[in-house]
From TrEMBL:
<comment type="similarity">
    <text>Belongs to the GHMP kinase family.</text>
</comment>
<dbReference type="InterPro" id="IPR052203">
    <property type="entry name" value="GHMP_Kinase-Related"/>
</dbReference>
<keyword id="KW-0067">ATP-binding</keyword>
<dbReference type="InterPro" id="IPR020568">
    <property type="entry name" value="Ribosomal_Su5_D2-typ_SF"/>
</dbReference>
<dbReference type="GO" id="GO:0005524">
    <property type="term" value="F:ATP binding"/>
</dbReference>
<dbReference type="InterPro" id="IPR036554">
    <property type="entry name" value="GHMP_kinase_C_sf"/>
</dbReference>
<keyword id="KW-0418">Kinase</keyword>
<feature type="domain" description="GDP-fucose pyrophosphorylase">
    <location>
        <begin position="105"/>
        <end position="519"/>
    </location>
</feature>
<comment type="function">
    <text>Takes part in the salvage pathway for reutilization of fucose from the degradation of oligosaccharides.</text>
</comment>
<dbReference type="InterPro" id="IPR006204">
    <property type="entry name" value="GHMP_kinase_N_dom"/>
</dbReference>
<feature type="domain" description="GHMP kinase N-terminal">
    <location>
        <begin position="843"/>
        <end position="920"/>
    </location>
</feature>
<keyword id="KW-0808">Transferase</keyword>
<keyword id="KW-0547">Nucleotide-binding</keyword>
<dbReference type="InterPro" id="IPR012887">
    <property type="entry name" value="GDP_fucose_pyrophosphorylase"/>
</dbReference>
<dbReference type="GO" id="GO:0050201">
    <property type="term" value="F:fucokinase activity"/>
</dbReference>
<dbReference type="InterPro" id="IPR001174">
    <property type="entry name" value="HddA/FKP"/>
</dbReference>
<dbReference type="Pfam" id="PF07959">
    <property type="entry name" value="Fucose_pyrophosphorylase"/>
</dbReference>
Amino acid sequence: MSNEVWSHISRTIDVNEPLAKNMSHHGPVSWTVVVLTCQHKDSVYAFQKELKLRQQRGYLPQEALLLTVSDPQERLGSGGATLNALLVAAEHLSARAGHTVVTADVLDDAHILILHTGRDFPWDSCSRAFCWLPVHRPQDLVEQPICCLDLLLDCLTHQICPGSPAGVWVCSTDMILTLPTAPVMSWDSFSGVRVVSLPSDVSYATRHGVYLTDEQDRVRDIIYRGSEDRIRQAQCPDGKVPLVSGPVFFCRQASERLLQTHVTPPLDGCTYMGMDSGAPSLQLSLFLDILLCLCLDVTEAQFVDEERQGCASAVGLQGAMVRSARALLWKMLRGTPLSMVYVPDGQYDYMTMSGDEHVKRITEKGIERETLSHIQNLQCVSEYSRVINSMLEGDVKVSVGAVVQHCHLQGPMVVPLGCLLSGLDLTTSNSPLWLTLPSDIIIQRHHVQLGELKLIVFTVLGRHDDLEVSCDHTATTFLNQKWTNFYHCTGIQPADLWGAVDESAGPRCLLDARLFPVYLPSKGAVGLEGVEWLLGGTGSVKQWREAWRLSLREVLLCMDQQGELCWRDNLFLQAAQRRAVDALKARTDRSLLPSIRAAVLVGRQEELLETLDSVAAGSTKDLGIAARCLACVADVLGCMAGEGKGGLRSGPAANPSWAPAFALLERGDLSRGVKALAAERKNWLSRPDLLVRAARHYEGAGQILLRQAVMSAQHFVAIGQGNVPPIGEWQEVECPARLDLSGGWSDTPPIAFERGGAVVNVAVKVDGRRPIGAKVRRIREPRLLLISTSGAPDCQVTTETVCDTLQDLEDHCQPHAPGALLKAVCVCSDLVTVYSQQPLQEQMLQRWGGGLELRSWSLLPHGSGLGTSSILAGVALAAVYRCTGRTFDTDSLIHAVLHLEQVLTTGGGWQDQVGGLVGGVKFARSSNCLPLRVQVEQLNLPEDFLQSLQQHLLLVYTGKTRLARNLLQDVVRSWYGRLPSIVENIDELVSNAEECGRACIDGSLSRLGLCLDHYWQQKKVMAPGCEPAAVRAMMDALRPLVLGQSLAGAGGGGFLFMLTREPLQEKTVKSVLGRIQGLGDFSVHSVEVDMQGISFQRPSETHQKDIV
């Protein structure tokens, strides 16, 4: 296969990649039954488990019946295996439908897929089907390997089979099919059998088979391993020939005829029922028996009597039975139409017995240097090598063209040019072999079972050795050297390998040479030293002869595939945990959710939880890492609960059982806090609802650490001391609202300090007024009088709170407590010390000579999206600072609000206070590091652009409200999970902010409008559901009038702002919205850019009698 083909494979299995060109216009097939056949009964349990895993991972339909069926006898043939598999599928469907006998009625609506694993594969202990490939799907919901079976399932389910009627598809798993485009097939009124063929060169086809067809694509003959002249008879106009490529479809009627064979001697000899009934065994080929009898040019005499390669002989001991079976097939099936679909751009790669071809397939055609592995020193691994499902510790050099799969290696060691190592566990080996290993050597570790004895067997072969050619041929090799050289170097004789010469036994080939020591009666199992000696290491021919030995064929026949798959799964999970640790410590964007789901799926979550605990407890110098670890623990618990089970992930997190652990975290004792969390966690694992509640508390614990990290912004708060104003003098501060033009959500911790944030926003007056303000005066009575007013003038709500004691302030960190924001202002401005032995009144008298009256107001509706709460915190802090004679600058105020919102536990980003406290249009950013610092640049706009902006900018109150806090937890969770869509969207938010800034500086309203539209789409990615239906209707109606539009803030309601195409469009907008039925209350408001930002009013005196 070409590199382009492998690139195509990688794209087709990326769930985020549009597949319109690759997929059929029909949806994927929803299989009723998937049957996997295998040669050995010992494979059934292991392969069934693999199928079930793919179903659990979402790769096979959840409702599909999965069956693994062993051939009832050896050498059953692909046709016999198909008949047996169809019988088993029909039997299970009949039982499921309540029938007591097998009935063909169950085929009426069934879509059955039969996959044959075929012969043993020398380069993978678990057959070609489960051979891992260097392909990775980072967008998968569940991390999983990609095997040949997975590529085939993807190709069949999404490209070849969609649209087909009820019936049976049959395909081998011994090849890789690649279809850049889905074949066009008409299934209208289809009846008969259809084969799918891919193109091939004539020379390649001589080792396989081709279809010979007429002008209507009806199959005339199947030419199997013919001469080049014979093969050319099937040549297509493109110069290629249609290869016998695998997929075959039998319609409902044809499938019923195949099913009838289980009660028709001697054809019943292919099925397990026939064997159980004493019928003699029968070998049938799918292509050269079942399909050949349907070919137009084949006569009955030819079909029944002729000898042909690739199927059972019509002469000899079983000749009469074979001829009888063929005669019955002719009678039952002849007349059924057989047609071909040719896919001219498809590619077919048969997995031969050649080690050289296999290594080339993995290295030259692969696209991933490292697949599902953990490599400590990646620089030691050549770009042109492949490491699959392995752990490489220390200096393990992997040379060009080498493959390491399913290995755990400890350096120093070298994997030379062109070698393949499979299944090795070399964490303790000090053998010098690994520093002198020759090139092009294949070493494999196999799990075998000899009766009740389970052993590990090592085999070694040369990459260029031919396994099946007679070793008597002078050109044949072992370990890439001639046999004569090997005999001379080792003292081994041919009789040691094959026994006495037996002409009737067939040619002596490498596959049957008993080369590999397994067990020494005097010492027990033989380890890797057995093959080291074959490669020239220490040992002796005497000891080699004393050992029980196996040939490669015998090793494959005795394979413990369950043990082999278990080894691979353990490596897969261990490597995933190590990659998770690396991702956490390096603060990379790799999502751990697929690995978490994979671990939970197989019940290995406890090891993962312990790993996450360890990383969290050791991250005292980077609380961002610790917080992400706790969020990952929450994800593990959520996965354990099950999708949609146990309740919503967002919810309260203040159960008293978790309070001791939370207290330790609050005090900064991270290590003990994480241990206390883990101890409490054990009490919450028994039910889905408890698991979800535990997940909420882990997210709550993460929020504690996140708050502590964000509080590092306090480093940039510089407060000076000036003159304290007299008692009774009001200090009044006003601020505009803010409109976020681009970049919002990138300012939200932890995104703001892990990725870096960038925002463009503008300070605005609404209907000519600064809508947010606060005023403070000192009063004689030593208490705090806190009065807040909010809402539009016609529906204002005022709350008055009096604090006489410190206990009255203890709920300052509970956002929904009465007066919580103003209480937090009092605490964070150091007006009082809450946790002190000194009573409130004493503190007030000692520090300020009396109490304070603090009044705040907002003329904007609740949930407006205009940054009200953060700006209100800023003006209230500013007013308190001025009233107590302290000095500050705007930069300090911005960071002080960040600190206050962490104390208040509302979280949130920094863009709101930047938008209101700093006037005009500005570009603000934070770097991807702690401490969190916000830098603001007020943009110098062309004067005519500023005037034009004010004429084209409008606000519409939608009448819908939604709190940003309702969205915040989901966004932070998505970021901690590093969902690829979120990571990509954050980058786009930042780049859009940069373009927005350039558009403003250049004075381009049209480009600014495009940025607004892009920004709204980005907001919807961050917070799905932030666009109510009524808002969508408004935006659709206004689209012809605007250059761009977006809901302000987090969305979900509040204010919609727009940049109109024409100036002064207030009346037009009202008219358009007024025609929308069922819209409810809305209002249109004018906007004026406020160049000043925070505004300090002239101090005002109050009469003595008004002072409390």
